[in-house]
Structure formats: structure tokens, C-alpha cells
Amino acid sequence: MGSSPSSSSVVFAVLFLVFNAAVLCHGGKTSSFVRKVEKTVDMPLDSDVFRVPPGYNAPQQVHITQGDHAGKAVIVSWVTANEPGSKKVIYWSENSEHKEEAEGKVYTYEFYNYKSGYIHHCTIRNLEFNTKYYYVVGVGHTERTFWFTTPPAVGPDVPYTFGLIGDLGQSYDSNITVTHYENNPTKGQAVLFVGDLSYADNYPNHDNVRWDTWGRFVERSAAYQPWIWTAGNHEIDFVPEIGETIPFKPYTNRYQVPYRASQTYGKYTPQYKWLEQELPKVNRSETPWLIVLMHSPWYNSYNYHYMEGETMRVMYEAWFVKYKVDVVFAGHVHAYERSERVSNIAYNIVNGKCVPVRDQTAPVYITIGDGGNLEGLATNMTYPQPEYSAYREASFGHAIFDIKNRTHAFYGWHRNQDGYAVEADTMWFSNRYWHPG
Ligand SMILES: *[C@@H]1O[C@H](CO)[C@@H](O)[C@H](O)[C@H]1NC(C)=O
Ligand SMILES: *[C@@H]1O[C@H](CO)[C@@H](O)[C@H](O)[C@H]1NC(C)=O
Ligand SMILES: *[C@@H]1O[C@H](CO)[C@@H](O)[C@H](O)[C@H]1NC(C)=O
Ligand SMILES: *[C@@H]1O[C@H](CO)[C@@H](O)[C@H](O)[C@H]1NC(C)=O
Ligand SMILES: [Fe+2]
């Protein structure tokens, strides 16, 4: 959608190495897989996954995200229903008896006729790398204990595994996507989420109760590993007809991130200036892999949101090529698609060079908006399949980006109808900085 989300509509993650002598191109495959045709339906309010945890003022909707640039801080968030309760998080590393505490802040907001619970955000800092921590929230009322493992210190050959989920929503299919992610034998250590979380805005007056149910639904993963957020159009919640004129109000109250949002989008805006300064700062000797997340895809051959990413592509694509971005993940289109390495940056108004061309210095573009939300699958594709499109399929699923070292990463897309270990589309990535070719 082009609106700029919380810490960004563009997010980097950094990591390692690779090369690949194999031919990357599948020559443009439109999968013939026969997917389910039933309607995608939201889970009812009394579903098991939406259950409120028992006990007075018990913390619910617990989730964590990375709390600083290096990975030594975590933001712990939760909601209490009855009263604010303690703002404390008590935490300790598995190697230590010594318990530490941190104190956070409580937020509430109103949305039309809805009043939120007490939304807690607490940043815990100075953590050791690569260490398992336990943490307790709900101190003094109903205590609940969770755990997470911090990422390793940055370095050129540190393996790390990301899950990729987009446009998740809270349907039965969304639940299957999360279940497949949890049961994937290649265990994701953090989720890169490409936007569109709860789809509460599809309910009358954007019924924010569906933001709460979504928070309870994803707790089983998001309380134990960081989910790195990108905002999508379903986070905007701008409804002047009912007096709701602050964009992203529910989202920003519920999903805090460590850096300020740029708020604007377009040439010369804060987002533009931020990205212009940020890209050259990425030190590929420390963090070999450069990954960008955005909501609306630039290279999309479905008949949905067609060319919506175009204004952003025109602004930023040349930078992505120049700074050797490895891969760009997007959502928005409720299907799966992977591109060849292509760019379309030669056009200068007079030279007529305005088609995507194969470009080994360019990123791969992956649309992973197939989390399973109630709007259903995007099944209508453009024909013929464009040259730049390597693989496309309208099925729900998730992906894993598994960084092995500075030159290699293994990528696999999993569809929900298959067994947990089955990959329906795979690619060895060779790092654009360390092993272009
Ligand atoms: C969601 O998935 C979990 C894990 O497979 C399962 O236990 C639960 O019953 C499912 N709930 C619904 C409403 O589908
Ligand atoms: C990049 O990181 C390497 C390894 O830490 C360091 O030696 C180098 O000076 C850094 N480069 C810049 C431009 O900061
Ligand atoms: C697919 O999309 C095209 C372009 O928007 C439209 O003309 C066509 O009717 C659609 N087909 C179906 C089956 O919806
Ligand atoms: C990087 O990982 C790939 C894939 O596992 C492996 O083939 C390669 O030897 C590794 N490179 C180094 C320098 O370890
Ligand atoms: Fe979307």
C-alpha cells in the first residue's frame, strides 16, 4: 500500500554467506497443484486458539520482538484485562540463578465503541547473545512463564534461520499455516512477518476484539521467538466515518518496535531519507545478508494489487541493486510467487528501456502473502506468465530462509496441504556481496 509502517516498510535483517553454481531459473513455472476450493473462514470466537488464559488478570497475547539493532534486547508485550497490574518482567538466563527485572509501560486506547485492555511493553536489555532466557509476566496476580533464545553475535559465518509469514489473519487456514511453521523440521528462530496481521478491519466498525483474538492465537509462537513486524494496509484502521482518524492506532499500540516510524512515504520524505542513509551503513563483513521486507510486492504477476508497488519500485529499486540486496519479501497478494533475479532500472524517460531484464546483481523478489486470511486465495493470474516470474502458485503456506554461512542460504516454501517436511519450491541463494554469479 505504500504507507510506511512502524519501524519501516522496509526492514533489514543481516547475516551470512553463499554461492551457487546451480542454475536458478525454473523457466517460469505456474504450478498445476490443485488447491482447496472451499471458502476461507475465520475461526469462531469460542475457538480453542482464542481461549483466555485462566486466573485473575492473567497476561494474554504475550509476544516478543527484537528490541535493539544488535540483538541484545527484547521487547516483551502482553495484555491484562482487569487492571494494569505489574509492569514488571522478571527474567533470567538458563545458566544463572540470578533473576533480573525490568519495568515497562502500560498503554490503552479506544476505538469507536471498543476499549482496549492494558497493553504492556517492556524492553529488557543487555542480554547475552545466543542464550536461552526465561521470563515471567503477570507478577502479583497470575504469573505466566515463557522463554526465548537470543540471536548469536553478528559475524560473517553465523547460521540463522528465519520463518516467513504474511497476511496471516485468523481463519482455520491461518491456524494450519502456524501449525506447519511450528512443525517444520527446519526450525525458524525468528519470524519475518510481511504485514497484515489480524484482519480485524474486515469486521463491522473494525471490531477490535479481533485484534485481541489474533494476539491470543499467535502467542504460541510469538511469545517464544521474535516476530519482526512490517505494517500492511490492514493495519491502517483509518475510518473517519466512525470518527477514527488516527492511522495505525490499534497496531502501534499493540505492536511496539525499537525504532521510530517514518510516517510518510514518497520521494524526499523521512522514509526516503532514512533508507538512503541506512543502505550504505550495512557492513556486509559483519552482516553478509541483506534482506528487505515490504508489504506490497514490486514484481507480482497475479491480477490482484497489480502494479500497486510501482511507485515505490521506481523510487528504490536502483538502490536495492546498487547495495546488493539479496532478497525482498512482500505479502499483500494472497498467493505465492518467486522471481528470477531481475531489475528494471535503466529507463530514463527518453531511452525506452523500460522492461525487466535478467540482472545477476539484483535481488530475488518473493511474495509470501499466503498466510491464510479470510479474504481467501488470489487465484487469478496474468497470462502468459512473465519472464521474470520463476514460480507461482495460489496455495496457503509459509517459507524458511536458512542462512548457512556468508555465501549460502537455503530457501524453501511449504504449502499447507503437504507434510511438514515437504518443500514445494526451493532455491539455494548465493550471497550478492560475497558470491555474486
Ligand atoms: C489450531 O491448531 C492447533 C494445532 O494444530 C490445534 O490444536 C487446534 O485445535 C486448532 N484450532 C482450530 C480452531 O482449528
Ligand atoms: C566492517 O566490519 C569489519 C569487521 O568488523 C571492520 O573491520 C570494518 O572496519 C567495517 N567497515 C566499516 C566501513 O565500518
Ligand atoms: C481475472 O482478472 C482479469 C483482469 O482483472 C479479469 O478481466 C478476469 O475477468 C478475471 N477472471 C476471473 C475468472 O475472475
Ligand atoms: C557454506 O555453506 C555451504 C552450504 O552448506 C557449503 O557448501 C559451503 O562449503 C560453506 N562454505 C564455507 C566457507 O563454509
Ligand atoms: Fe494485504
TrEMBL record:
Q: Name the EC number(s).
A: 3.1.3.2
Keyword Secreted belongs to the record: no
May I ask which residue range the UniProt record assigns to the signal sequence? 1-27
InterPro entries cross-referenced by the UniProt entry: Calcineurin-like_PHP, Metallo-depent_PP-like, MPP_PAP, PAPs-like, PAPs_C, PAPs_N, Purple_acid_Pase-like_N
Keyword hit for Nucleotidyltransferase: no
Domain of life, per UniProt, equals: Eukaryota
Tell me what this protein is called.
Answer: Purple acid phosphatase
